[in-house]
Each structure stands twice: as structure tokens, then as C-alpha cells.
Amino acid sequence: MPVSRPAAAVTCSGDIPHQGINPGGTAKTLSPRNGREFYLTQPPLRRREERGRMEEHYEQSKLYRIRHSAAHIMAQAVMELFPDGKVTIGPPIEDGFYYDFDLPRALTPEDLAGIEKRMRQIIAGRHQFVRRELSADEARQFFQDQPYKVELIDGLDKGGQDEYGNPIVERPVISTYTHDSFTDLCRGPHVENTGQINPSAIKLMSVAGAYWRGDEKRPMLQRIYGTAWETPKELEEYLWKLEEAKKRDHRKLGKELGLFYFSEDVGPGLPLFTPKGEMLRHLMETYVRDVQTRYGFQHVWTGNLVKEDLYKRSGHYENYKDAMFPPMVDENIAFRLKPMNCPSHMTLFNEMGRHSYRELPLRFAEFATLYRYEKTGELNGLTRVRALTQDDCHTFCTPEQIESEFSLDLQVIKEVLQRYRFTDYRVRLSLRGEGGKYVQDPEKWDKAEAALRSALQANHVDYYEASGEAAFYGPKADFMARDVLGREWQLSTIQVDFIQPARLGCSYISDDGMEHTPVVLHRAVTGTTERFLGVIIEHFAGAFPVWLSPVQTVLIPIADRHVEYCRSLAARLKALGLRVEVDERGERMNSKIRDAQKQKVPYMLVVGDQEMENGQVALRLRNGENPGAMSVDDFLTRANREIEAGD
RNA sequence: GCCGACGUAGCUCAAUCGGCCGAGCAACCGCCUUGUAAGUGGUAGGUUAUGGGUUCGAUUCCCAUCGUCGGCUCCA
Asked: pTM for this structure?
């Protein structure tokens, strides 16, 4: 059952940071995962603006000081254990803090218990946090045995980067904080003394590897994650939320509900879908397909294999060849499994002959399974796979049509997200920033950016702008939706593309009789079927809305003499389009109900002597509600109403 | 890919110091014919992920490989 949370507005005010850092508490594992972008994006820079906005409040908060101080206390405890260890950085993060160390040996879970115990002792000492400001040379002197700190000091000294790697404009004041026997390079702020941390509201969570400064070419450090709150109750709530997230884990539910499996025989990141799992995929794809058809999108099919050469021309090869499966070579021709659709759609556009401006916009939609060679360490259930089915669409249009086409995409996305009960979402509108990475055509940019803004406003979509976050080929809008646990997922995306159509020679004849290059909008609604399925399994905790449930109704005969009647009922319901099963096992009714409920089947229809006599069924719902006996027609009316309503 | 942990029956887990690998659920075969979250008896199920090493003897210790998990702010 969905966890209740305060009713969230459909949209939220654009200038209010949307608690990307959420002191109210969401799970550590719940940090937003970026969706796959389609296309030639630059490696995403840190979202400075976004970060800045959400951290403003957080950094002032008591919780921030508590966590920051807890990180120092933890560092002290670790350094007592490893006097020769090297400290690096230890910032507060969403829901807690971490500290990275370079230690002579790997930490074990037993170490964690010891460190946590020592932290409590230090806290009990009520040691003052003392700030001291010093010159860069003094700092270097003080931290001479701590090479990572010296590196940080050098960075600060020449105004390079802060601990997050952001450029620093002004040379900052260098300061240290000391409590008890431990001194750390730190700009603060901290609590006044260690006694202000509640020893029962902290917990060390895990050890993990982390590269120094996130750079895989630099040393691998050991990171300890911890969580800290103001009160034990908050800690408990946080841990409860983690438990809840664990219960909803789509990998666990996928197995329990028998939806999909991974097999070593087939390979990592290549999910196998059971009949129920495939039914879900089918329903999801059919739904989006129908919506798209209704909005004037046309469906195309461009296969799975493409000559490598095409990706050299489109520019993908250069940027993404590592993420493609290795080529299949036939004589002199190399083929690749298709990792994205755009070049294929544009090629199709070209092959269809000359295009008049009167044909535009032309909207090509495709559910194609793409193959991407994701690094093994990054595979993760259905949310990160190597075979992914994108609900991809490319709209070829004139520059003047950008606004109306973008608007159309917005409407499709709004409708689909609504259907899946994602009502709490916002849009990040990524615009061009300073610097030379962007396609040089200021006029096009200005027009496109204005068109996007205008369409977002006209459609009453809440959005915020992130300048400098656009792809080099054009602005884009990403939909970030919160699930019932408050976790944010990037789902839909719309991207304007000024460049690839030109690279692949797409053109149309305008009313001036001249050839022009169309603009292309790339768009995904649910992103990929696999990932979206993973997300909605967790969003619904496996209890899918009736329209989407792979099995909508289980008929439960009480005794063997009711089986025949159930079979005929099932046939009747099936003929009307319901997905029905009869539980003919020789089990007790109670046991059948239990199993159906565990499988989250929306309707259980119990049939015994009474029902058989009166031509009825006794309805029970998966939430335990028991509407009781009713005529088959009444049940059908109810079921159809709920299916129609998207319940 | 890198760091760390883990891999025992379909699932969830157990097995002392290195000494014949065990239980619940599921499956299968019976009995019961059931009224809103587990009726009952029995049967079967394993080269302990794979390959190698140490040892009289390896689920247990060592090495490699594969896979999974947590991270590494990472992705068209």
C-alpha cells in the first residue's frame, strides 16, 4: 500500500527550492537518478544553481551543523584507530554525512561498530568546537602530514576549487575547527560543543569506496556514510523509511510477484520478463502508443542493427563508442547494435523523399529496444540495464513550430504522468550559459528558449531554469517526478536539436522554394519501459492500478464443486477483456485469499454455494476491504469504472 | 571499470575450531471439501556460483573467474 504523505500540490512554486536536500528525511539511496539522455550531451556539470538554492537553507540549519560536526567526530574516532591514516573531506549530505579516508587497511563492519561507540564517548565529553583562522602557509605547516589537506589548502590558496570542485571566485579565509584532540581544515559551521549532538540520533551506515575528488584516475579512498538527526525519533523515522524503501525495492518485488529475472546464462543487465512482466510492458507500451497516436504521432520501426558508419556521421561514434556494444563485422562492414534511435529516424526521414514544409511537423515515434554497454558496476535492477526499450519520438519541424510542438509534447507527458499517478513533478528547463560549447547561433537559441518558456507557462507547468545546463545542440526540459516515498526520478525529457539534422543532411523545401534544415525535438515520455517499470513497481509497491495489473481478478472457488462455475465465469469475464485467473488448487479459501493478496491482485472473487445459487460473486479487495456478495454485472460495472478512472 | 561485502534447494535463511549441509515456505503425491490472510500427512529437491590450490578431509582457509549488492555525482 502506498505510504501516506502530506498531500503535495500538483506543481510547486518555481522559486522555492524543491528540497533536493530534504531535511525531512528521505532515504540515502533515494538520490535522484538522472534519466538517460538521448543524445550528445556533455558530461553534466554540477548543477550549481540548483545546488545553491537547496543548500542555502540547509547550510544554515542546525541539522547541517550537527552532521558536519558528527563527521569531524567520526574522523577523530577513525584517526585514533589509524594514527597514520590520511583524512580528506567530510561534508554533510542529504540525510547524513560522510568522511573519506585513506587508510592502511580496509574497514570492516566491526570497525564501524567500534567507531560509532567511540563517537558516543567523544560526544559525551562535551568538547568545544574552536574555530581558528590561519594563513595558507600556517595551514600547510599544520597539515604537513596530511597530503590531501595540503592539496585542498593549495586549491583554496590559489582560489581554485572548494571541496566540491566548484570554482572559487574570491580567495577564501582558511580556517580550522578543533574539538577534543582533532583538528580539521574546515570552513564550518559547527555546533558549539559535541554535547549538542544527540548520541542516540546518530548511526554509521556503511563503508564504500570513493575516488578522491570523484576522479577515477585518483586514489580510491574509503568512505564511511553516517546519518545524524536532532532527535532519536527522527533517526527512527529515517531508518523506517529506509526499511520501507527496501520493502518496495523493485528487484525484490519483481521476484516476489514473478515479473522478471536476470540470468547469468543470458548476461548481466539483460532482463527476462515473465508472462506477467511482459503483460505489464505490453500494457504500458500500448497505453503510451495510443496516447501518442491520439496526439498525432506516427509510429515507425527502424530495427536493432545499424552500420557503424552512420554513427560516425552523426557524431555519436566519437563521443559514445565506449558505451556501444563492440561491432559485428561482416567483410568490411561493421554493424552496431543500435544504442539510440535518432540517426535511424533521420535517415528514414531522408529516405522518404523530398519533404515539403506542408508535411511538417512530422512526428516519428518508436518503441525500440536499444543496447548500451553499461559498465558492469553501474547495472542496477531494471533501472540500469543494457537492453532498454525507449519510448522515443523525433519531431521534425520548422523553427516556427518549436513552441507548438514542444507544447504538444508537454501535454502528452502531463497526461501520461497523471495516468501513472505522478502528480508531484517539476521541470528543469536547461538553457545555454556562458562558454563556447554551444552551437553558435544566438538567434536560434533566443527564439527556442523563449518558445520553451512560453509553452511551459501556457501549459501551467511548474519549472525552474538552469542556465548552462543545456546540451550544446539546444535547450531541453527534463521532468523530475516524486514518487510516494518522496524520491525524485527523472522520467520524461524533451530536447531541442539544432545540429544533428544538418549533420545527417535532413531538409525540407519551404514556401520560399529554398531548402531548409528542420529542427528536431527529441522526446521520451516514460523514458525506457524497463526503468519506468522499475520506478512504478516501487511507486505502487507492486499494487498496480487495476488497468495495469497483470492479473486483475482471481476467482476463488470455496470447494471443488464450485470450480466449474468459476471457470465459466472466468470465460465470461475474459471475453469482456478482464485478465482473470481461477485458483483451482486444493487449498483452503483462506490460503487462496492470502496468496492472491500477496500477489496484489486487485479483485478476489470468492464463490461458494450461495454465490452459485444466486449467480453472484463475493468481492474482496487487496487492501482487505470486503464489499461482499454482488451480481456479476455489478462487479463488472465496478471494475470497468475503476479501470476507466485509472484506479 | 575501481573499492568493499556477499554467493548454501525455486524463495528466505541455518550449519561450532576445517569433520557426512539442515529448516520453513514453494513444488509434487495423498487425505480433508473448506466462507474472507497459511487445514493436514508424506515425497522429492544440493558436485555449497565456477575453476584451481592447501589439507587425511574444504560450505568453511588461499588464488582466479563469473554474478549480485553498497558506493565511486555517472550515463546517448
From this structure: 0.87
